Amino acid sequence: MKTSDWLLIGIIAFVLIDFAAGRVINFLNENSKNQPLGPEAADIYSEAEYQKSMAYGTANYKLESFASVISTSVILVAIILGFFAKLDSFIRERIGSDLLVTVLFIGILIILSSLGSLPASIYSTFVIETPLLYAIAWIYQELQSVFWLVGWLLVASFTLFMFVFGARIFLPLFNKLKPLPEGELRDAIEIYCKSQGFPLSKLYEMDASKRSTKLNAFFSGMGKVKIIGLYDTLIEKLNTEEIVAVLAHEVGHYKRKHTLTMFLFSNVQTLILFSLMGWLLSNPNLSAALGSDVPSFQLSMLAFFLLFAPVSTVLGLINNSFSRYNEYQADQYSIETYPGAVEYMYSALKKLSVNSLSNLNPHPIYVAVHYSHPPILKRLAKLK
Ligand SMILES: [Zn+2]
Predict the structure, then answer these.
(1) Model confidence over 286-307: pLDDT tens digits?
(2) I need a surface site. Which of 95, 116, 243, 327 has the fewest CB within 10 A?
């Protein structure tokens, strides 16, 4: 058998394994959710809220199962029938420039895969990610041998830019930000930030309630320019002490250098990814695996990412476990630096989980794969 046939078998096997593993893990999680819970549950949810969270979890489970059956079938059929190679040659026959072929190919795949998602996310994918992909395709074409290094430098600088300015540039595009008015809340936040030597330059309230019921806060900035934005939903549902305790947790992420280490860690991962791409993308077998006789950048990329799936699963497990560990540390920071924070964090976390209808009893494997934050009962237990 040819190498490209082996690659095709590998791709199909990974898609199937990913599907089967995903279904098993979700099934375990759904069963785990439906086990009887101890008195902790009653401490968080009222009976009505608990029923609502259970129904919400089950509805999500069904929707996810349905969506994954559909998307896996579509991907498998497309791979087996050589749809991607056909789309590639269809565009290639009509367009002369290789770069435009790449952009159109990726654009069409983005539109097809994001049918049904929010306009805002399609917008951000197109406005932010397509030009970046275009630049990477250009670098690949012009600088074959050092493509991986220059490509990585480009992505790393882009990530750094978003890390520093992202919230300041993009949040105001989709939200209304206004300075948090003078008063008890503002005073309490400023006093806390000062006590921690945390230079707060801007403190905003954001009109998140127009689009979501999520309770949240965001942090942005490096060095002396620190911006905190509070969702109006958070201000409405949490009292002053609870909000400061939550912010103390966020300051903890900064002070314990979580933001920085996560940033560096993710750049190391992209470097590994680009080195592998630099090594493999020029191999014509990747495009051939998807049914094309002509080596094509976008087909090779697609085949590469399909084959990369197991590695990205492992990286996801590492990232999540690192992130969950950091959450405990940030809670600890809040407790150590804000008097009374144990109680305030405790009640804030309860309100947050009722609001998001959290699953009180997720399956440990599901947590390992999907949770960037510890399950609520574990987090509360650690606080006490
Ligand atoms: Zn956190």
Answers:
(1) 999 999 988 888 899 899 989 9
(2) 116
Rounded Cα distance between 345 and 380, Å, is 9
Q: How far is the CA of 251 from the centre of ligand 1 (A)?
A: 9
Q: Which amino acid is at 84?
A: F
Cβ contact 316:371 at 8 Å: no
Residue 114, token pair as written in the block: 């994001």
Residue 127 has pLDDT above 70, yes or no: no
CA nearest neighbour of 288 among 32, 72, 10: 10
Radius of gyration of the chain (CA): 24
What distance in angstroms lies between residue 355's CA and the mean position of ligand 1's atoms? 17
* Residue 39 pLDDT class (50, 70, 90 cuts): confident
- Can you tell me which residue has the tokens 């014509």? 284
Q: How far is the CA of 249 from the centre of ligand 1 (A)?
A: 6
* Span 339-361, pLDDT tens digits: 999 999 999 999 988 888 888 88
The CA 273 to ligand 1 mean position distance, Å, reads: 27
